[in-house]
Amino acid sequence: MCRWLAYSGSPILLKEVLYEGPNSLVGQSLHSRMGAEPTNGDGFGVGWYGAPDTPGMFHSTEPAWNDDNLRELAGHISSPLFFTHIRAAIGSAVQQTNCHPFRHNRWLFMHNGYINEFATIKRDLTLAIDPSLYPLISGQADTEVLFYLALTFGLENDPPAAVEQAIGLVEAVAARHGVPHPFQGTIATSDGESIWAFRYSSEHKSRSLFYTTDVPTLRKLYPGRELFREFSDDARLIVSEPLGDVAGVWNEVPESTYGIVGPDHAEMRPFQPKAPTTQVPVRA
Length: 284
Description:
The protein is α+β, with helices and mostly antiparallel strands.
């Protein structure tokens, strides 16, 4: 599987979460504690929001722990909202077009998990993608297909409903083909203002996902820790696995749940996929 991290809050340098801490994301690329594989060396990606209308992206097929370009960028890019992802490939080639996060206009999308027997149901899934979006697919990864299905079902207007329908379609198509336990994973998507994070699997044994306790509470718990004074009140991290082991910092996202993190709110709600009523909605 893969490991990923999403940050929202006041601008910070990417290196603060990529390289710093006892279990940093780059550290997890070599020694993941909670992943299906301890090593995630099949490429990585960073997507960040700044002054332009669309987020910047950097992808590489180098192992994250061995890429000097990533270290250089991470020490100079500061952003109020960014995604980072380290990849352990399943089924698709190790190439830049298969690295997460994926981007469409202002939207970023990344995933840890898989669509089971993707080759068996890929044709039906890709034919359900809106014809205007289909030519934009540039890689082979199941996550990219899932992203464009979510866009087809209205991700830009209602992210939870769109992801519900995208995964619901995966499960419906898989049922027709006799594919068991079709979906596994955690997902993050963002429009640059809010982050939506999902934890779900068809067999209800999802990959791990955690979020940080709000910063004002952490300052009260640990008044002497300089780190918690450096982050803004609204700063949040959502991660595949914790970056450290300080008590009270990390909270597990429950099974079949999605969370919303925005500039002035954070909440969690139940998540249950449902197949769309029409497979190819007409886009305006």
